[in-house]
Design brief:
single chain; 510 residues; alpha+beta; Aminopeptidase; 2 domains; six-stranded mixed sheet; four-stranded antiparallel sheet; 15 helices; 34% helix; binds ligand BES; binds manganese (II) ion; hydrolase; peptidase activity; protease
């Protein structure tokens, strides 16, 4: 059953109220990876809890996950609260669990943001709303608050029972959340009785590079600019993540390279030698055994990627350069979605900002990660990588020392999309965007996705609000006004469709 026309109208009429609320959300500097910002993350969680209360979800709780840990040791820093909420206790209704995160990646004007402040949402004339967290993941989370506001204000009963789980540590590996989900999924727990899970997310609404667009809804001001880039998607997989820190230590302190160069083993030289063995410039992972974990695609599987609405131009526009590894879309998308990848992220202690500083850094930490796809598991990959690094380091015959640490791993997730949950999402997408969504997997990672699927034994899907060119984690992250408004309509419509998928339709799906 489609969402009531009154709801769709309400969303259009209240767009400015919704955008103002997003502006407030973005103003919280809730960077989970920066311990100095922990108070801001906590305040953001408390604000979100209050917003839920204001729109009728009075049954909420802020869950304290205790203290953060590092290398197995407890730090003197509290984890931000998990915001749990529930509304609707009707046993005849479907119960949908909604997950999102209210923490964000770091952002600094100095990195090249062209707006005044990354934490001050700026709505540009072409509809782009620029600010950290706008698309990942504050905009999508607030989409739910918008849907709730309509039902609360107009005194409409929701078509489903809803459970909310909003966390503040996603960008830092979701520490502590797995255990909470498992506990709350048991009889008597907050999530017990959930029938399906919906995760609101960024990205797979591809930016389309086409000039014709028949949807007036996408026309935003001022110079008659048509937002002609849109192909909605529903997502059935995310990659996992294993993240490594390699610390190489030699001298007690930094050394003058004129005095000590060529007289001692240098940590940075060792690290470069090691890191050159991880991945080739065409993206192939060189660590033995990693690529071999993943089966090659069958022709049928390849055909799935051939069908997706994507062009090399889309990729080039998103990255702002012509640097694609392969020149066709199916392989490009498979590299993103169904193959593992290895990226080197940075070197701590490398004096990168200090001009021609001629020292030998005494200790450096190199960081890299591997994205995982089934049947890889974080545990297997960690063991393989550790063994490889130790073996290769030994071959260097360096007298420096190596220490390998890894972040809590995230396993890959893949869902069966021949399921009524996906069918509801598809119908809702058709209703809002007048197009069939692409069914996609995603390259990014959301650590708890698989946890929800396993703990609750239910179908999980990702319903994206933003677009592939939103620049999540990057400078000038944005969410388009049209995506926020239509995304809100999509979330509401999905609830109505999930509620009315009847027994017969459910039985048709696996
Ligand atoms: N929402 C993203 C994950 C994502 C990216 C999903 C693209 C779909 C498409 C999430 O906030 C994120 O950035 N996750 C981190 C996880 C990590 C820190 C454990 C990631 O993917 O790097
Ligand atoms: Mn996210
Ligand atoms: Mn993110």
């Amino acid at each position: 059953m489609p969402a009531p026309a009154e709801f769709l109208q309400y969303v259009d009429d209240n767009a400015n109220v919704f955008i103002d609320r997003l502006r407030t959300a973005v103003s919280y500097r809730s960077v989970s990876g920066d311990l100095k910002r922990r108070e801001d993350v906590k305040e953001m969680g408390e604000w979100l809890n209050k917003k839920l209360n204001e729109v009728g979800v009075t049954n909420t709780k802020l869950v304290d996950l205790g203290y953060q840990t590092k290398d197995g040791k407890k730090l003197d820093v509290k984890l931000p609260p998990v915001v749990l909420g529930r509304i609707g206790e009707d046993p005849k209704k479907t119960t949908v669990l909604v997950y999102g995160h209210y923490d964000v990646q770091p952002a600094d004007k100095k990195d090249g943001w062209t707006t005044e402040d990354p934490f001050k949402l700026e709505v540009l004339a072409d509809g782009r709303m620029v600010g950290r967290g706008s698309t990942d993941d504050k905009g999508p989370v607030l989409g739910w608050i918008n849907v709730l506001q309509y039902h609360h204000e107009k005194k409409k009963v929701l078509p489903v029972n809803l459970r909310f789980c909003f966390e503040g540590m996603e960008e830092s590996g979701s520490e502590g959340l797995d255990a909470l989900i498992i506990k709350e999924s048991k009889p008597g727990g907050w999530f017990y009785g959930t029938n399906c899970v919906c995760i609101v997310c960024i990205s797979p609404v591809y930016p389309r590079h086409t000039s014709a667009n028949q949807f007036a809804a996408f026309q935003f001001q001022s110079d008659n600019y048509w937002l002609n880039k849109d192909q909605p998607a529903v997502t059935y997989g995310v990659r996992g993540l294993s993240y490594f820190y390699v610390t190489i230590t030699g001298p007690k302190k930094d050394l003058h390279s004129g005095i000590f160069g060529r007289t001692v083993h240098e940590p940075m030289t060792d690290l470069f030698a090691l890191f050159s063995k991880l991945v080739s410039t065409d993206g192939t992972i060189l660590i033995p055994g990693i690529e071999q974990m993943v089966p090659s695609p069958t022709p049928q599987e390849r055909a799935l990627y051939e069908r997706l609405h994507y062009s090399m131009k889309d990729l080039e526009e998103s990255v702002g350069a012509s640097i694609a590894i392969v020149e066709n879309t199916a392989d490009t998308l498979m590299h993103r979605m169904r193959y593992p990848s290895l990226s080197i992220h940075g070197i701590q202690g490398a004096f990168s900002d200090d001009g021609p500083k001629s020292v030998i850094p005494g200790q450096i930490i190199g960081k890299f990660s591997i994205r995982l796809v089934p049947p890889m598991t974080a545990k297997k990959v960690e063991a393989q990588v550790e063994l490889f690094l130790q073996t290769e380091f030994a071959k260097l015959k360096s007298k420096n020392t190596i220490k390998i640490d890894h972040m809590e791993g995230a396993n890959p997730w893949l869902a069966n999309y021949d399921h009524w949950n996906f069918r509801a999402a598809k119908i809702a997408t058709q209703a809002v965007y007048k197009k069939d969504p692409d069914f996609t997997r995603e390259g990014g990672s959301i650590p708890v996705t698989l946890t929800f699927q396993d703990a609750l034994n239910v179908n999980v899907l990702l319903l994206p609000m933003g677009r592939g060119d939103d620049g999540a984690h990057a400078q000038n992250e944005k969410l388009d006004r049209g995506n926020f408004i239509n995304g809100t309509k999509l979330l509401g419509s999905y609830l109505y469709e999930v509620a009315t998928i009847d027994k017969k339709q459910r039985a048709q799906c696996k």
